[in-house]
Amino acid sequence: MNEFAIDVETTISNKGDPFDTRNKFVLGGYGNNSDYDTFTHINHASISTRIKKAKLIIGFHIKFDIHWLRNIGCIIPIRTPIWDCQLAEFILSNQKNHYPSLEESCARRGLGHKIDTIKLNYWDKGIDTDAVPIEELKTYLAQDVNLTYNLYLVQKQEFEKPENKDKYILFRMQCYDLLVLEEMEYNGYKYDTEASEKEADRLDEECAALDRAILSEFVDVPINLASPTHISCMLYGGTIEDEISLPIGVYKTGERVGLVKYKKFPKLYELPQLIAPYVVQN
């Protein structure tokens, strides 16, 4: 089994976050259409051996699974080819479908459905994964592994189409990037909160100084630097609309009798063009 899909089931605090100490590994499974096996956090010799010999490891949002494998002592070498079916969906959709699900991806292609009984009968009722009867969990896990592997086979065919040639190159590069990202996330880095806060204060003051410098070029013009329309007028010329209140008499009756009465009138500010708009050449 040099090419196989892998999936893990864990407890569900904070969506099963592998770095949340409340969580624990419950069961893993791996296989293809001819072979399948499961493993636990204690008995993982078989998957460790498979990983060392693997020519391709397939998963759906596989970085999550790799993190959990490392938690139990199974490290995927940095140069091992992986195939993330979720990432493939994102690339194949022209980067429009940002967070595709396994269920959605397989159902759309007629590959079948996830088993929803674990979610409905346990997770939705607050029952964690380690309390699910093991045989039910094994069935659920086997279906996910099967769906993932068959989804990979279909995606592989889709990437072979001439129009997807460049997408495939991008996808493979990003799969290798995923292993680097996983390594970075897993090891983490020391964060200097005090230095970060000081840098934030420095940048806030620098931004404020830049704002003051910009506004000094438009004295008496009510510029809103958060307005794209105002920014456009500042750079390319245009009209900024505002309102001013002018006296129109006094109140003759009511609680405000004798006070000056004001009315709002539109006021227009014409700004000259500072730069020419950039024109994209065909």
Could you describe the 3D structure shown?
- 23% of the residues are buried.
- This protein has three domains: 3-187, Nucleotidyltransferase, domain 5 (2-Layer Sandwich), CATH 3.30.420.10; 193-219; 220-275, no CATH class.
- Helix 2 links the parallel strand 4 and strand 5 (82-84).
- The model has no long low-confidence stretch (mean pLDDT 94).
- It is elongated and about 90 Å long.
- It has 282 residues and is an alpha/beta fold.
- Helix 3 runs parallel beside helix 6 (134-159) and helix 3 crosses helix 7 (165-187).
- It contains nine helices and seven strands.
- InterPro entries: RNaseH-like_sf, RNaseH_sf.
- GO terms for molecular function: nucleic acid binding.
Briefly say what this structure is.
GO terms for molecular function: nucleic acid binding. By secondary structure, this protein is an alpha/beta fold. It has nine helices and seven strands, in the order βββαβαβαααααααββ.
Rg, rounded, reads 30 Å
Major sheet summary line: 5 strands, mixed
Structural class: alpha/beta
Q: Please tally the helical runs, counting DSSP H or I stretches of 4 or more residues.
A: 9
What is the N-to-C succession of helices and strands? EEEHEHEHHHHHHHEE
GO molecular function: nucleic acid binding
